[in-house]
Structure prediction request, 246 residues.
Amino acid sequence: MRLIFILLTCLSATFAVAHQTEKGELAVTEISNNLYQFVSYAKVEGYGLVPANGLVSIADGKGVMIDTPWTDNDTAKLLAWFRKRDIEIIASLSTHFHQDRAGGIGFLQQAGVRTYASKQTNKLLLERGKTTAKFELAVNPQIRWQSLGVSRHQLEIFFPGAGHSTDNVVVWLPETSTLYGGCFVKSSRSTHLGYTADGDTEAWPSSIEQVMKKYSDAKRVIPGHGASGGIELLKHTQQLALSLSQ
Prediction:
C-alpha cells in the first residue's frame, strides 16, 4: 500500500486553537493554510512537564501526521480534533523511536491509520517491546534520503547520521522550504542537548553539517521541542554538540 504525502503552501503562523497549555493539554496551531503544528505534553523524570512538537499536513480532507503525540490519550484527542473538522488522518511518520515521536503508533493502527517509520526505528521499537510501525521506509546509512509524494507535492525523509538518536531522520517539505528536525534539532532557547543516552554526541556535529548543506535554503526549521526558527537552529544545535567535546 502506498503512502500519500501531500503538503500545500506553508505561510506564517496565523491561527491558534485555545487550549490550557500551561496545564499540559494538547494544543493545535494552524501555521499555514492546511498545515498544522501540534504540541503534546508528558512529565519526564529530571525534566518536568515536556512539550513535544509534531505536524499534520492536510489536502482534500486527508491528513498526514509527522510524529505522534506522547500518549494514546492525546493521539485520540488529536484524531478527534481533526475529525470534528471533517479531516481524516490517513497516515503517520515517526522520525525516531522515542515516545514523543512514536508513542501513539499502536493507537493509530487500531484506528486504521497507516503508520510508517524507518527500518532502524522499527528495530529499536521492537527491541524495547514497543509497537512498531506497519510500513517501513528504506532509509539507512547507504540510502540517506527517500522522497515520497504525489503529483507536485512531496515530502523528503533524510537520514543525516546519528545525533539525538542513532535512527533520527529529518523531514523536508520542499514546496514550503520547511525543515522538520524533530529531536535532532534544538530550539534557540536550548542550553544543552537534553537526553542523549540513545544518541551519538560525537557524530552529531557532522550529522548536522549534512543537514545544513542539503537544506541551506530552509526558511522554517521546526525542532522537536520549543519554538520554530530558521537555519540558525541548525547552527545552534551544532554548537551545543561541539561544546561537549571542547
Notes: The chain has a mean pLDDT of 86.
